[in-house]
């Protein structure tokens, strides 16, 4: 049976996303690595970078010095498909160089034998 938005799976993914958000905002690299699929097929499109594969994503994060993000998220949407795939989308606001910016984020998650992993991610800022 193909169940969209099984409440238990939505709750599990929402909790995992909040773990990701905390790790992102506080530069917890080990947790970020744990949550991303470590495979050549994983993709992360950032505001200024296109990263392909777990190594590129990990190296990008490790090269930032004491990088912390302070942002407010809203419109968080978690949509699950059966019990092994999900999308997470949200909007955020943050101050960059003294200017409030609005951005968007989307992630695709898949449930592997070792647990849920982000298999694709995208972050973008709206024009000023």
Please give a structural write-up.
It contains three helices and six strands. Strands 2-1-6-5-4-3 form a six-stranded mixed sheet, with helices on one face. It has one domain: Nuclear Transport Factor 2, Chain: A. It is α+β, with helices and mostly antiparallel strands and 128 residues long.
Topology:
Layout: H1 7-25, H2 29-35, E1 43-45, E2 50-52, H3 54-63, E3 71-81, E4 85-96, E5 99-112, E6 115-125
Parallel strand pairs: 1-6
Antiparallel strand pairs: 1-2, 3-4, 4-5, 5-6
Helix pairs in contact: 1-2
Feature tags:
Nuclear Transport Factor 2, Chain: A; 28% helix; 6 strands; alpha+beta; single chain; AtzH-like; NTF2-like_dom_sf
Any guess at the CATH architecture? Roll
| Strand segment tally | 6
Number of domains: 1
Mean pLDDT: 95
Main β-sheet description: 6 strands, mixed
Shape: globular
Secondary-structure element string: HHEEHEEEE
Helix content: 25-40%
Q: What structural category do the secondary elements indicate? A: alpha+beta
Number of helices: 3
Distance between the termini: 45 Å
Short description:
This protein is of the alpha+beta class and 128 residues long. The protein has helices at residues 7-25, 29-35, 54-63, and strands at residues 43-45, 50-52, 71-81, 85-96, 99-112, 115-125.
